[in-house]
Amino acid sequence: MFESRYASSPNEVKQMDTEALRKHFLIENLFVADQCSWVLSFFDRYMTGGALPVAGPVKLEAPENLKASYFLERRELGIINVGGAGKVTAGGDTYELGYKEALYIGRGTQDVQFESVDSSAPAKFYLNSTPAHTTYPTRKVSRDDADRVELGSMETANHRVINKLLVNSVLPTCQLQMGMTELKAGSVWNTMPAHVHDRRMEVYFYFEIPQGQAVCHFMGQPQETRHIWMQNEQAVISPNWSIHSGAGTSNYTFIWGMAGENLDYGDMDFCAITELK
């Protein structure tokens, strides 16, 4: 499965209703049994996908639109497992990925496939991919390997732990950066105060949302915000000019992925909470 999304300017987004916002930015169905699903955004040519191997291994193949002989011919790939135990074979080597463990695969790697250890509890491989200019080594990153930062407080309902997994403080990449933020019980706000960063775009993937609960994701320019209601295991595209923040009806976890010209995690322009409109 493959879909492409055109980039949108702030002026266009100002005119969008709920249906249009969801059509342009929300990714609803990432995990389809025994397939790789992909959405290509023309913001930094970022690809967001999912692989759900149930009946057997699922091979990573290049969609026709990439005009590539194999998927990673000119790309790098980040993987975080959000399901049961799984295995990823890349270039002849096999990596076991447990829940919330990550794998980086460098440009030029061929013969990549995804497999579940137990088909009754299949792995769910959340995938992000960006264009790459050089090759860096494939490497697994466990939760213990992550660069962890604890932020926020219960008083402001945003007590959270940021796990920097595939970032330049942990391993080298071309432009892809990925991590995972876990909100503590009783906290609901993420990425608040909000920010923008002109030199990179971002995609958020929300999961561990309890049944019957939801997350309201905020986007748009700081003085012209919009919102998208999201369900469990859905992703949303965030342009470089847009804030990317959210509040849930319960605590939850989300994976953030970024691409652009700068790998400095702290490169962001904060927006004062009282100035958001």
TrEMBL record:
CDD domains: cupin_KduI_C, cupin_KduI_N. GO terms for biological process: D-galacturonate catabolic process; D-glucuronate catabolic process; pectin catabolic process. Pathway: Glycan metabolism; pectin degradation; 2-dehydro-3-deoxy-D-gluconate from pectin: step 4/5. SUPFAM superfamilies: RmlC-like cupins (SSF51182). It is an enzyme of class 5 (isomerase). It catalyses: 5-dehydro-4-deoxy-D-glucuronate = 3-deoxy-D-glycero-2,5-hexodiulosonate. Zn(2+) binds at H195, H197, E202, H244. Binds 1 zinc ion per subunit. Catalyzes the isomerization of 5-dehydro-4-deoxy-D-glucuronate to 3-deoxy-D-glycero-2,5-hexodiulosonate. PANTHER family: 4-DEOXY-L-THREO-5-HEXOSULOSE-URONATE KETOL-ISOMERASE. Belongs to the KduI family. This is 4-deoxy-L-threo-5-hexosulose-uronate ketol-isomerase. The lineage of its organism: Bacteria, Pseudomonadati, Bacteroidota, Cytophagia, Cytophagales.
